[in-house]
Amino acid sequence: QPVWDTESTQLFRTRFKAVSPKRVDTPGHGIGNRFLRAGVEVDRYGRAVAYHICEDDFPRSGSGRWERIPRELPTGRPAMLHIFEPVEDGQTRGANQFYSVMERLKMLDSLQATQLQSAIVKAMYAATIESDLDTEKAFEYIAGAPQGQKDNPLINILDKFSTWYDTNSVTLGGVKIPHLFPGDDLKLQTAQDSDNGFSALEQALLRYIAA
Predict the structure, then answer these.
(1) What InterPro entries is this protein classified in (predicted)?
(2) N or C: where does the chain have the smaller number of CB atoms within 10 Å of the terminal CB?
(3) Can you tell me the distance from the alpha carbon of 62 to that of 91, in angstroms, rounded to the nearest whole number?
(4) Is the dihedral of CA 125, 126, 131, 132 positive or negative?
(5) Are residues 127 and 192 in the same domain?
(6) Which residues of 118-136 are buried (b: 16+ CB within 10 A; e: fewer)?
(7) Are 59 and 124 members of one domain?
(8) Rg, the chain, Cα only
(9) pTM of the full predicted structure?
């Protein structure tokens, strides 16, 4: 937008002010009509005659005042320079070249985040303690009818485990071999291959986006 700088001491006082496309919008963020399309006012031939610009720095904030800027001044000089490459008749905004691949870009971002979370989870545990408690006995503990905290079979078995490991420290520090609860087994975990075809899928998405 060409503006006249009254505070300048230079010979030429005409300045060009860049206007964010987000500020060019229908007053009140309305739907618009035949002669007002996304903040661009057009005549019956589709030629832009004026632009409605929100005076606030961010749309949908502040007082929400709009200013109508004509495309040309009465002298014929341009008051607004709207530069974009239209691809069809009646277009008042430039088309983003990334529109066709935005879904794939979001998909790639989600895929990479999920892959990272998977790798973190697989590398989180260095070792696990496995118990020989069979399924029948486990359901017996879980489904036992509680008659208070002391008579609850599940509470009793968990209390025994807690008491045992409170008095017998299970650590992986140094070369100490911990003495486990009878029936438990210490199993060291190794990080598995977290790729699982991820690299090939990622490359396919990148090739699709680049094309």
Answers:
(1) Phage_lambda_portal (IPR006429)
(2) C
(3) 29
(4) positive
(5) yes
(6) eeeeeeeeeeeeeeeeeee
(7) no
(8) 34
(9) 0.47
The residue-averaged pLDDT of 1-10 equals 70
Q: Tokens standing for 118?
A: 């998977």
**114 assigned to some structural domain:** yes
CA distances for 25 relative to 9, 92, 124, 185, 186, angstroms: 34, 11, 50, 67, 65
What's the pLDDT band for 115 if we cut at 50, 70, 90?
Answer: confident
Length of the chain: 211
Helices 153-167, 135-142: inter-axial angle, 10-degree rounding = 110
In a domain, 78, yes or no: no
Residue type, 54: C
| β partners of residue 186 | 129
The count of domains in the chain is 2
Q: How do residues 169-183 score in pLDDT, each as one tens digit?
A: 555 555 455 555 566
| Six-digit token string for 109 | 């971002």
Joined tokens for residue 55? 């005076």
Q: Which tokens go with 156?
A: 């009793």
User: In angstroms, rounded to a whole number, what is the distance separating the alpha carbons of residues 185 and 199?
Assistant: 36
DSSP code, position 33: B
Location of structure tokens 């009509």 = 33
Smallest Cα–Cα separation from 168: which of 126, 124, 132, 129? 129
Indicate whether 62 pLDDT > 70: no
Name the residue range of residue 125's domain: 101-210
CA pair distance 134, 86, nearest whole angstrom: 71
Residues 199, 118, single domain; the answer is yes
